[in-house]
Fold each of these.
Amino acid sequence: MKPVTLNTLSNLKTQGDTFSCLTAYDATFARCADEAGIEVLLVGDSLGMVLQGHASTLPVTLDDLCYHTRCVARAKRHSLLMVDLPFMSNVDTAQLLRDAGTLMRAGAELIKIEGEAWMADGVNELHRRGVPVCAHLGLTPQSVHRFGGFKVQGRERDQAQRIIHDAQCLVDAGAAVILLECVPAELGKAVRDAVAAPVIGIGAGAEVDGQILVMHDVLGLNSGYVPRFVKNFLSGRDSIPDAFRAYHEAVKARTFPAEEHTF
Ligand code: KIV
Ligand code: NA
């Protein structure tokens, strides 16, 4: 299998094909996901919740993300490695560039940033220096306290228009990928149609270019509350590699997400 690059993802979009993405935080699970054919691995700051036991992603540090990036980078072969910038990396452009540089040196190949159109200058500075950026819109978990909880975004018309506008501004500034979290399926499709860059969705419906889930959710390891967009792919199967393959195949065949996983 050839290594996945940004070109692979944009060719898939152009052909009307889809791709799968999964979070990974260590070498063993990263190898399983890579061998299952999953195109993009994300060292997400969700590690604050699923690994460290925090109630949000805010406590995760750059050192935490670097440590897990190194673990995943050693194991993956063909998947593209995307890594989150931690909360408040965007206090200013200098900090943003330094933090992204640190993650790239640790093995990141694509840097994910939460932020709206106002992040366009920072995205452009990264782009100019050779750092590809994924802009995360919709439910951005680092803003959970502003939202008053993990809530679906873009239900109202002006909010939806603003998200489409943010995606366009950030792609114009150089963002290579958009990630949309917890928005109505109709808005997912509108963003996909509005930008040339591939759009990855989580709880954003079936009509986006790629899908992503947190690894623990794919394995049914939720603590109590199970979000609507999640599916346990280990259920009815007897190994983790099988579950990862089933997730990848379901995304490729567009049988996941189904209506029941969609807002
Ligand atoms: O941190 C993370 O796992 C994420 C995904 C949920 C997209 O940002
Ligand atoms: Na994240």
Amino acid sequence: MEQQITREDALTRKGYKHACHIMLYGDSSAKLFGKIPIKHIVLITVIQMQMRFDGLLGFPGGLVNPSNETLEAGLSRELHEEVGVAVPVGVDNHVSTCLSSSCPGLITHFYIKKMAESELKELETAAVAKATDHGLEVLGMVRVPLYFLRNGGGLPYFLSHSFISNSRAQLLSALQRCRLLSQGEIEKAVSQAEQMRR
Ligand code: GTP
Ligand code: MN
Ligand code: MN
Ligand code: MN
Ligand code: MN
């Protein structure tokens, strides 16, 4: 477990680097696998993560220097670079701050923002068409499969991939915080993913 500290405490510490990442998500109308007739369009929750240059999954965002910019302005700048839209981020979007255990000297700040369907759509297009880091730092945005198929398909297989730093734990806590899945569903996904990694 990573050690949690407050955002305020983090900003008083000297000699640390700061990284800010965010879960952008929202409802989107879709036809699930085309199997559901058009008149039965369902709302699915879209969560944006990314395939990083290093082959790991993670959230959009990056290093912020608090002596040049606020954490939130820096995160917005990173979003402009990585997804092509400078999504505004406020202190009200902040959810947790940790002393990174995998990377000593790094403090990681996590944010969550719910977006409208049209904004999510714009973002998915811009991530390919406009983002300066597309194909460089970021190989592509990916949606998180928030469902269960037979034999561990869906979320369990997604969780069995490799994630940067504690981004997997950030995803799991966000699913719970935003009530996107029940506690039982989250535990089921984690335990099925665990069996695949053996
Ligand atoms: P450069 O512009 O190349 O420096 O990259 P960046 O500013 O976009 O930084 P990056 O997104 O790689 O994040 C910096 C550091 O934060 C990484 O080396 C990881 O240790 C950590 N990190 C990256 N993504 C995540 C994430 O989704 N969650 C958490 N908790 N940490 C992350
Ligand atoms: Mn970046
Ligand atoms: Mn980044
Ligand atoms: Mn950067
Ligand atoms: Mn960069």
